[in-house]
Amino acid sequence: MRSSWWLRLAVVCVMVVLSAGVMTMSAAVVGKLEIFSWWAGDEGPALEALIRLYEKENPATKVMNSTVTGGSGVNAKAVLKTRMLGGDPPETFQVHAGQELIGTWVVADRMEDLTWLYEKEGWKRVFPEGLLKLLSTDEGIWSVPVNIHRSNVMWYVPQNLTKWGVKAPTTWAEFLAIAPKLSARGIVPLSLGENWTANHLWESVALAVLGPEKWDALWNGKLSFRSPEAVEVWKTFGEILKYTNTDASSLSWQQATDMVVRGHAAFNIMGDWAAGYMATTLKLKPGTDFGWMASPGTGGVFMMLSDSFGLPADCAARDNAIAWLKMLGSREGQDTFNPLKGSISARIDSDMNKYNAYLQSAARDWKVDAIAGSLAHGVVANERFMNDFATVMEIFLQGSNAQAAANAAYAIAIQSGIAAK
After folding, report:
1. pLDDT by residue (tens digit) across 291-323?
2. Fold of 31-148+306-372
3. 245: CB partners within 8 A, 6+ apart
4. Where are the beta strands (DSSP E) in 57-124?
5. pTM listed for this prediction
6. pLDDT 10s digits, 246-262
7. Which positions ≥6 away from 328 have C-beta within 8 Å?
8. 8 Å CB contact between 159 and 222
9. Per DSSP, what are the bridge partners of residue 34?
10. Domain extents for the chain?
11. How many helices (H) and strands (E) does the chain have?
């Protein structure tokens, strides 16, 4: 009888364990998850690493990678707008943290508040306070950041500068002094790509001319877009454009970076995804095969942007999307993605031994530099302003009229609600 009692007890214990296992499996997400982003080509490996991690953690799911190619998400945002307005949102989508999301889809009541997820995962303790403010309104927290990128970086090849007898300029005045010497040798002083890369260059020039406080003042209505300082930005920008490549409009940002790597150009201003491209795709060694510094005139300032993912209201596979967001915010997710992407973790507790020399330097600067938000990548302005600013840039590239560009920027600032009349 005694042995029979122990046998029955053992059977019950086994059944409990098996039952718990079944419950755990049934709680796991199943089915499909659509991920919408613009990470393709050379940025694809970082996204693919995240997808592999997600499918490993959620083996009953299959990720649909809906990527729309085009630098800085120019094409993806247009497709996303069609889907969001048409009632067919992806389960989750890449979006720049800040006004690109809040000023477009949060104000339209198309996103779900994620405050509960932040509290459950303890993320308020591991994401910096300033970043949390960028992701939030008084009504909630709206996306999960996967990284921190730096916009204001000048790239170059150290041995090429030595060969040409020039040093990386710390101001735009220094650049304009050495640019004619480089041009005389048949070297493009500053490589440039398609329209959005001109916007990207413009914000670094504006940050140098205005400084971080007046840069912020543009976006809170305290400094007019047609003020003398703002006009000076366009004048300086126009002088710099004289020393860029004439075929810029036909080149991607990668091709503009290639001009520097191949010695056809001396410098390029691009975000630190260029470091990911050079290190991951081209297999170049940071600090040896390519060098970097803050763009001229912006030393001590970190112009930032952050890629993030949100949860559209009424998405088809909500549980699967939440599982994706949990993975993105985790330390493992961040440290899987960022070393490949050429960005640093948004968390304060990541293992920096997994990051290369450039990313370690960026992480150090992030902790001590003054912080400014990017225009070209959705931090400081809403989608309406950004779309119209691309038209202002096209007009300026054709005519180089600084006052006209400043007046046009002032007009679209009023129309998009950034500045008062």
Report:
1. 999 999 999 999 999 999 999 998 989 999 999
2. D-Maltodextrin-Binding Protein; domain 2 (3.40.190)
3. 188, 191, 192, 251, 256, 259, 265
4. 61-67, 92-96
5. 0.88
6. 999 999 999 999 999 99
7. 50, 144, 146, 309, 334, 337
8. no
9. 64
10. 31-148+306-372, 150-304+377-415
11. 17, 14
